[in-house]
């Protein structure tokens, strides 16, 4: 797990490119505190930079950027390849020779053996750049789940890439803001892919690679990931065994590390299951990190203890209080890289994991999206009925809807993003227009400038799963987890998003995968002998902090006089009177300096 950066440009002098890439790496040092490296090829006008967080092969042999023995191909790599040993064995049989025990070298030799077909063979979380000196090509590649970030700027015969947006501004490459980012932020609560806060800086789509021709300074975007076509599995006994075996395999191979590794344990179903499975493999070597609160409605110590009593290894428990939130809030906002209404919980748990001596942890992200753990899986039925109403009706009533129903105005747009924003959005288009002093039509144009997807009108649980996986999890949970953990030099692994486990899950009939009476019933039934009854047979909490209470007590967040405009001030007053969710207040708090 690392941070990477690079520039390919015929317009800049080699020494200028090197200086900029070094600056980009320095801006991302927190994500790679163990080592740094620069590769420069003056004739190719190419420079790669790397900041290393050592997890596999802690020796100098893991130094990056790395090349094969003949220096035909160079790589700067962020992430982990969990099946690297299997690929290495296959390559050894084909005659490949290795000089290190790293997964990085496996990527290099896989590319030399199979070309771009190698990308689909990788199982893991990754974002890397490859320079093929023989063919004068540069590749940017991102994993199939979009766990690791890859931002790029490709214009005016220049290719620039980095793991964080701050790297572009630090090096003075792109400083102009995207004027539309505040609209997207107030609608989504984050900046959705492929957009960023910087003009013309984009996020590489998951499961894709960018192919840059160093000679012509042109590029193409290509998908390398394909969903395997399978018959839907309808045999319940076979499904239970499939979930057991595939998740166990995912957890076991994501425990591979030459540095201390642990598990985030919140006390909920997902993290408890990951901890129990990991304990089978690591036993006394496993470490768990948990957070608890004085606010009893949010405290899950009792459930954490039930799991801890069943596993070996050292457990770390941390109390987080109001004054901790207020003390660290400036650091949390700085760590965000781009504004978000989430990530506070990830920042704290990552800080404590780092303080406890861990370099890598396993997280339960993904289970809710795959097995129906969110309220949206039941609310999708209401959306199905609402979509039978003509969009023109919602256009007509937009200006007269009361606060609680204002988001219905999104349904004036026949677009899958409108469905998502009704279920999870923050502010309505009209309110966003008022908050930013712009036109409501302009807001709509910005939000729905992506072409609608075909066959996105089923409005069943599979539809809800697609929305949660590809929008909420992709744009918010994964990005916030990555940036907050790397702010502390910590790697977070997500077994539920393992490629093979994902392929197994999507092969299961929806009638079995989702249950109307109990969220995640299939997951619970698959591990009924392992998962304690008390952990799952209770109301869902999620990894939640008492932020409504803490932000209300925060002198700046709750001070309506510090906000610009009547709507912003009235929203904060409602928040302080406990009639508005904290996420809206937090969004307005972050955006004040930009309006």
UniProtKB/TrEMBL annotation:
InterPro entries in UniProt: Asn_synth_AEB, Asn_synthase, ASN_synthetase/amidase, AsnB_N, GATase_2_dom, Ntn_hydrolases_N, Rossmann-like_a/b/a_fold
Domain of life, per lineage: Bacteria
EC assignment: 6.3.5.4
Chemical reaction(s) catalysed: L-aspartate + L-glutamine + ATP + H2O = L-asparagine + L-glutamate + AMP + diphosphate + H(+)
Signal peptide: none
Pfam families noted in UniProt: Asn_synthase, GATase_7
Record-given protein name: asparagine synthase (glutamine-hydrolyzing)
Lineage, uppermost ranks: Bacteria, Pseudomonadati, Bacteroidota, Sphingobacteriia, Sphingobacteriales
